[in-house]
């Protein structure tokens, strides 16, 4: 057989080898397989072991790369749904704990080649990097596979990758600007729209995202912001205990809008935008000087067009320069960035109540000097100017057969005002289909770190565990949001903790509390 770099040929060869020489038990992955097995996933985690026995072939040739992989939700009608939370998941957790495995998450997902119509279902176990050898990993994967087979589920394999679930947090605010405003993009981080970059005053280098606003009828006129507890009480920096602000004689736990690095980033971004507009003006002036020498059919019309564009760029420069002066004067001093103070924050708890969820929230009373009736427009996500209307609509409804119900708001502000109970989360309309024509639930969020992103809600809960100072923490359940597709990167980044995730509107889902490599 002659050598070839053709992907289809490699795929065929892979199938032939796997069918012809199937090993009886899984083998320890090679260094190359461990590194590239998850090629195409946003974090490309390292493979530790797997229960499957097919032979992974190393790509060859000058520009040979493995086929890209993609994560997709489990789906609604798989038999694992009925036994995962009450039986199989807890059994795996008990086994892993008994073996001393430093696991961080158990995610039932589909992982296959990008574009696969029906990718295989995998129980994806995350372990702390460097904590589990490949040899021991094979034994763990095989035992967990056995737990599945014991309940007549033989079509699911177990894969173990290195991954950590991490909880890190990246003058009056402005009213969200209309997209016609030349400073709209630079203006957005300083507005009252959701996605506020926040941090505790005592830990300004550990940042997260403000989730959503609430009010309390007992205290009319006051506004509160809900975020993740660990953003404002970082593990290792603060004790994990109840905090409650009772009276003004008690020291306040202040919350800042922007840490030092973030305010510097945004001021530099304004300067960069000003510089870009100056380049545009310079180029337009060159075109204007040469307008009479061009072969335009109507040079006078062309001249007027260039003059109009130049005038628009000059006005944009003036507006941006004014914004830069205001931001530098009003926001660079830390004392001017106090957004409010924490009034209630229970300790982070895992496996809470019968459902076993994570409880990770804090409430911040907003200083009326920052947000009041003149600049508050409700719980809105600013869809911004960087993603076009048609592109975002296509993201929310990725399959052409969908009949979009998402209506892009005329003011670019996606308003939501309702929540969804957990028991109803899995009863949503199945009309929306992803690019593989599978039913899916599309969600959107704006986080301080990753900005505006769209993802797919998994249809089954994950088991997670955070390692605290190297020691295993308590197990909990969380709902995973998977990337919209393999090209766009993860749904959230470190620094997005606390941000609100919502359906197309007007419904709010739980806050982002953690992330793991996917």
Secondary structure elements and their pairing?
Elements: H1 7-20, H2 31-36, E1 47-50, E2 69-72, H3 80-98, E3 103-113, E4 121-127, H4 134-149, E5 157-162, H5 184-187, E6 197-200, E7 207-209, E8 212-214, E9 224-227, H6 229-232, E10 243-244, E11 254-257, H7 260-289, H8 299-331, E12 338-345, E13 349-352, E14 357-359, E15 362-366, E16 380-382, H9 389-396, E17 413-415, E18 418-419, E19 441-447, E20 451-468, E21 471-483, E22 501-502, E23 507-509
Parallel strand pairs: 4-5, 18-23
Antiparallel strand pairs: 1-5, 2-3, 3-4, 3-20, 6-7, 6-11, 8-9, 9-15, 10-12, 11-12, 12-15, 13-14, 16-17, 19-20, 19-22, 20-21, 22-23
Give a summary of the structure in a few sentences:
The protein has helices at residues 7-20, 31-36, 80-98, 134-149, 184-187, 229-232, 260-289, 299-331, 389-396, and strands at residues 47-50, 69-72, 103-113, 121-127, 157-162, 197-200, 207-209, 212-214, 224-227, 243-244, 254-257, 338-345, 349-352, 357-359, 362-366, 380-382, 413-415, 418-419, 441-447, 451-468, 471-483, 501-502, 507-509.
Structure description:
It is a single chain. The protein has three domains: 7-162, no CATH class; 184-341, no CATH class; 376-509, Thrombin, subunit H, CATH 2.40.10. 26% of the residues lie in helices and 24% in strands. It is built from nine helices and 23 strands. The strands form four sheets. Strands 1, 2, 3, 4, 5, 18, 19, 20, 21, 22 and 23 form an eleven-stranded mixed sheet that branches. Strands 6, 7, 8, 9, 10, 11, 12 and 15 form an eight-stranded antiparallel sheet that branches. Helix 3 runs antiparallel to helix 4 and helix 7 (260-289) packs antiparallel against helix 8. The longest helix has 33 residues, at 299-331. Mean pLDDT is 82; it is low at 1-21.
């Amino acid at each position: 057989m002659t050598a070839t770099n053709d992907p289809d040929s490699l795929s065929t060869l892979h199938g032939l080898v796997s069918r012809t020489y199937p090993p009886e038990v899984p083998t320890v992955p090679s260094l190359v397989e461990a590194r590239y097995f998850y090629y195409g996933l946003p974090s490309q985690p390292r493979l530790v072991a797997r229960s499957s026995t097919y032979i992974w072939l190393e790509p060859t040739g000058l520009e040979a790369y493995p086929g890209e992989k993609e994560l997709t939700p489990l789906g609604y009608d798989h038999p694992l749904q009925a036994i995962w939370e009450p039986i199989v998941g807890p059994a795996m957790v008990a086994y892993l704990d008994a073996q001393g495995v430093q696991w961080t998450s158990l995610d039932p997902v589909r992982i296959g080649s990008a574009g696969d119509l029906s990718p295989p279902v995998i129980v994806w176990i995350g372990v702390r990097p460097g904590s589990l050898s490949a040899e021991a990993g094979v034994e763990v994967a095989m035992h967990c596979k056995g737990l599945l087979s014991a309940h007549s589920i033989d079509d699911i394999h177990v894969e173990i990758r290195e991954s950590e679930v991490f909880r890190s947090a990246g003058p009056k605010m402005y009213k969200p600007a209309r997209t016609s405003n030349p400073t709209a993009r630079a203006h957005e981080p300083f507005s009252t729209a959701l996605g506020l970059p926040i941090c505790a005053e005592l830990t300004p280098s550990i940042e997260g995202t403000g989730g959503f606003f609430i009010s309390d009828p007992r205290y009319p006129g006051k506004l509160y912001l809900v975020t993740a507890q660990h953003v404002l009480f970082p593990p290792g920096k603060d004790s994990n205990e109840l905090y409650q602000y009772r009276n003004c004689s008690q020291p306040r736990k202040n919350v800042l809008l922007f840490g030092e690095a973030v305010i510097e980033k945004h001021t530099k971004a304004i300067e960069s935008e000003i510089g870009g507009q100056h380049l545009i003006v310079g180029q337009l002036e060159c075109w204007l000087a040469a307008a009479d020498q061009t072969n335009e059919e109507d040079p006078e019309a062309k001249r007027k067009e260039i003059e109009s564009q130049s005038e628009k760029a000059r006005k944009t420069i003036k507006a941006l320069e004014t914004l830069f002066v205001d931001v530098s004067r009003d926001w660079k001093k830390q004392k001017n960035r106090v957004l409010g103070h924490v009034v209630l924050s229970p300790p982070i708890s895992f496996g809470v109540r019968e459902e076993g969820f994570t409880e990770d929230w804090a409430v911040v009373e907003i200083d009326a000097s920052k947000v009041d009736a003149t600049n508050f427009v409700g719980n809105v996500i600013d869809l911004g100017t960087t993603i076009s209307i048609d592109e975002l609509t296509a993201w929310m409804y990725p399959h052409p057969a969908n009949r979009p119900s998402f209506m892009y708001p005329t003011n670019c502000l996606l308003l939501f005002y309702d929540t969804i109970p957990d028991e109803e989360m899995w009863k949503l309309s199945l009309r929306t289909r992803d690019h593989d024509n599978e039913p899916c639930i599309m969600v959107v969020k704006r986080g301080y770190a990753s900005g505006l992103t769209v993802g797919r809600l998994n249809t089954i809960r994950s088991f997670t565990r955070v390692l605290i100072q190297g020691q295993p923490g308590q197990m909990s359940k969380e709902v995973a949001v998977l990337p919209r597709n393999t090209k766009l990167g993860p749904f959230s980044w470190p620094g997005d903790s606390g941000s609100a995730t919502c359906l197309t509107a007007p419904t709010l889902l739980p806050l982002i509390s953690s992330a793991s490599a996917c």
